[in-house]
Amino acid sequence: MEHKEDIIEYISIYCTDFYNELEKKAMRHYVAQVKFLPYKDRVEKMTVAYNRDSSNDPGVLKLLKDGIQEFHRNAAERVLNEHFCELTLNTCPKCGGIARTPTARQCRYCKHNWR
Ligand SMILES: [Zn+2]
């Protein structure tokens, strides 16, 4: 598969609906650590959000043990392998390359424009 790294990056940004329950839990746990934890016990809304999304699940912690980037790489690669046919990827009509975003209309590889 051509440009596999770019496809994986695209999936990790735009196709996280295909992440499984544990992977979604890991995403929420990560957000809880970086966004809610700094305000925990100071802002009530943040405390509630932290307590809701932070996780002690060993499976979640295992998924995140090598960092958020490695987590997304692994999860997106799994989605690519298991759900390729269901994914609606925005690809170039000319060369088939993956666009940068779901709404992009210009190819980053061959520069073809399809607006
Ligand atoms: Zn192209």
What can you tell me about this protein's structure?
- This protein has 115 residues and is mostly helical.
- It has one domain (4-86).
- It is built from 5 helices and no strands.
- The chain has helices spanning 4-14, 21-36, 44-53, 58-63, 68-83.
- Helix 1 (4-14) crosses helix 5 and helix 2 (21-36) runs antiparallel to helix 3.
- The protein is elongated.
- The relative contact order is 0.17.
- The model has no long low-confidence stretch (mean pLDDT 97).
- Zinc ion (ZN) is lined by residues 92, 94-95, 97, 107, 109-110, 112.
- Zinc ion is lined by residues 92, 94-95, 97, 107, 109-110, 112.
Question: What order do the helices and strands come in, and which of them pair?
Answer:
Elements: H1 4-14, H2 21-36, H3 44-53, H4 58-63, H5 68-83
Helix pairs in contact: 1-5, 2-3
Bound molecules: zinc ion (ZN).
Zinc ion is lined by residues 92, 94-95, 97, 107, 109-110, 112.
Bound molecules: zinc ion
* Tally of DSSP helical segments: 5
- Poorly predicted runs: none
Q: Got a strand count? A: 0
Could you state the order of secondary-structure elements as H and E? HHHHH
Spatial shape: elongated
Share in β-strands: under 5%
